[in-house]
Here is the input.
Amino acid sequence: MTQWHARDQQYLMNTYNRLPIAISHARGNTLYDTEGNEYLDLFTGLAVNVLGHTHPAVMEELNRQGGSFLHISNKFLNPPAIRLAERLVKHSIDGKVFFGNSGAEATESAIKLVHKWTQEQGEGKRGFVVMKKSFHGRTLGAVRLTRQPGVYQDYPQPDLPVFEVEPNQPEELRRVCEQENPAAILAEPILGSGGVQPLDTSYLQEMARLCREQGRLLLMDEIQTGIGRTGTLFAYQHAGLQPDLILFAKGVGGGLPLGGIIAGRKLADLFHPGDHGTTFAPSPLSAALGNAVLDVLLEQGGLEEGQKNADYLWNHLRRLQKYLPDAIGEIRGRGMMIGIDTFLTPAQAKQLQLDLLQDGVLVDIAQQTVIRLLPPLTLTPDESDRFADRLERRLKQTFS
Ligand SMILES: *Cc1c(COP(=O)(O)O)cnc(C)c1O
Here is the structure.
C-alpha cells in the first residue's frame, strides 16, 4: 500500500481524496487489496458495477466480444451498440440514442441538443432549471448545471442561463418557469451527490405537467439512478412520467466507460451529421457488456432479485434506526441507492468510513455526514447482515 500511495501522490494529479488501499482484484461483491485484506463493496465503483464484479454473464461477453473486435469507429454499423440502443429505447421512451463515453459527455450532449432545439423551436425560451445540490458532471458545460459546494464552478461561462431551485418546492418551480421562461428542466430523480435526496413523486409529476403545458423539455439525469438501481430500469418510471430526454452512464457499460442520452420524439431527429460526435463511443465492448447486464436485469429476473435484496437491507437499516435513534436520522433513497443520515460530525463520519474499511466494509460518505450506499443488486442477505453488524458496532462505539 505505502509504495502505491507514494507513487500515486507523485504521478497522479491531486483531484481526489483517495482511500489508503490499493486493489489487487475483485470477485463478486468483494474487493481484495494488495495486502491481502477483503472488503465488502457497497460502493460498486460509484454505482457502476450493478451486478458486482466478475459476474459470469459479463465475463462471458467480455471474452466473446473482446475476442471479436475492440474498436471500429463511427464510420461503420456497430451491432452491439445498435442492439443496446434498441433495448434502452424499448424499455424507456420512444426515441433515439446518442452514445458518449461518460456521464459528463451525456450532459454535454443534452446541452447541445437542447440548445439546438431552443434555436429552432424554442420560441424565446432559454436555459435550464436545475436543482440545488444537483450533480451533472465536471466538464465545462456540465459543471454549469452542477450545484455542489465542492465542485469548482468559476469558469468563463458561455451564454447558458441556469436557474437554481430548491428541490421539492413546486411553488418556486412554477414561479421560475413563469419569470425566466426556461427551455428545459433537468433533474436527478434522486439527487445522489446531493446526499441521496429523492424528489417527491408529486414534484416530479408537477415538473412533467409544467413542461407539457408550457412547451418546455423535461430531462431526467439517470446516470446514477438508472440501470436497475432503484428497482426499475430508470427511476423516473416509478412516477409514471414521459421525459423528453434521459441521461444515462455509470452502470450501462457493465463496468466499462459508456454513457449517453435517449432523446424522445421532439429531439430525436434534431442532430445531423457533424452536429455532434466522439471517436471512442459507443465502444463495442462496453455496449456488449451493457447488453449482458440488461440480459440479467430484464430477462433473467435481475431487477426483481435486486429489489428483494434491497428490501432485506432496508429492513435491517430500519431496525437499526429504531435501535440507535441518537446515531441515525432519516434513511432516504430507493432500492440499492441509500442515504443514511447520521448525527456524526464530518470528522466522525470520515473516521467511521475508515473504521468500517478496517472492518472490511467499503461505504461512501456524501454531503459530509450521510453514509451513501450504492450496493450491487446482487448483495446477498449474508452480506447485508455483515454490513449491518459492523455498522451497529461502530455507531454504538461512537455514541456510547
Ligand atoms: C456521476 C454522475 C455524473 C457524471 O458522470 P461522469 O461519468 O463522472 O462524467 C452526472 N450526473 C450524475 C447524476 C452522476 O451521478
Remarks:
- Residues 302-374+387-400 form a domain with the Aspartate Aminotransferase, domain 1 fold (CATH 3.90.1150.10).
